[in-house]
Amino acid sequence: MTSPRLERRETISYLVGYGLALLLTLGAFALVYFRLLDGRATFHIVLGLGLVQMLVHFRCFLHIDLKRSARADLTLLLFSSLIIGLMVLGTIVILSDLRERMM
Amino acid sequence: MDGVEGPQLRHAGLNLSHDPEALEQIESDVFGFWIFLMSDAVLFALLFAIHGTMLGATVGAPGPAETFKIGSAFIETLLLLTSSLTFGLASLALKRHQPWRLVLWLVVTLALGLGFLGMEAHDFATMAGDHATPDRSGFLSAFFVLVGMHGLHVTVGSLWIVVMFVQLATIGRDRQVEVNLIRLSLFWHFLDVIWIAIFSIVYLQGLIR
Fold first, then answer.
1. What's the rounded Cα separation, in Å, for the pair A31 and A97?
2. What residue ranges define each of the domains in chain B, with the CATH number in brackets?
3. Taking CB atoms and an 8 Å cut-off, how many pairs form between chains A and B?
């Protein structure tokens, strides 16, 4: 099972994940620190970079992929994401609407 | 669950050499921990949602732009990110039966985790010095609960690493200890994913002008 080639590939997978995550982090912080774009564009790009970095972590560190062997984890993850999306969006929509009406 | 496909460990991507029956047991143990992690993710998601609804609720107390320091948020991010890599290397040492390397990488991970906690405690103390305490406003309450909850998780994770040292020293490396290490690795990587959301949504969005 453990050939030197497989071992190297595994180590490289971690290092590639770390490199990608580092680049995405640096990008997000640089955008905010140097004020490269206006506020609205920065807002969306930082959110996007964060989301991509989460995917990198799931792929390279938590070993979730589209192979058949990781399907149960992937299904669980996607279902949890759906629940989280519903609850977070619902909370923000309802409470901000409430605040507007109370003003 | 899908069918037999050789001795391959699904959830951690690690192929620990065991008989197929033991492997299946490890997999279902680790899958149970995944379910716990997802319920933890729901908890964090709701704290994020509360933070989102409290963004405007500063009532004269210091807001995000005055309280957050981008420098220390950046260093904390680097510490936690690097600790995720070192834990990954520890997992590889576990898989390859290299006990000393495993302990070495776990020590490095623990040191990075404690460094992160130290920075965070320093941040909180600085904020308290600037009169940005949780009782001042809804925004600060939500901030301290969310980031404090993550810090609490990292504290538990660090304690858990120490417990694993004790188990490795006293019990040695049996199947249960291996499963515990795999669970801990998932927990640690998961905390880093939560931190990505914290620095992108809380710190960076708060500092955009």
1. 31
2. 30-207 (1.20.120.80)
3. 136
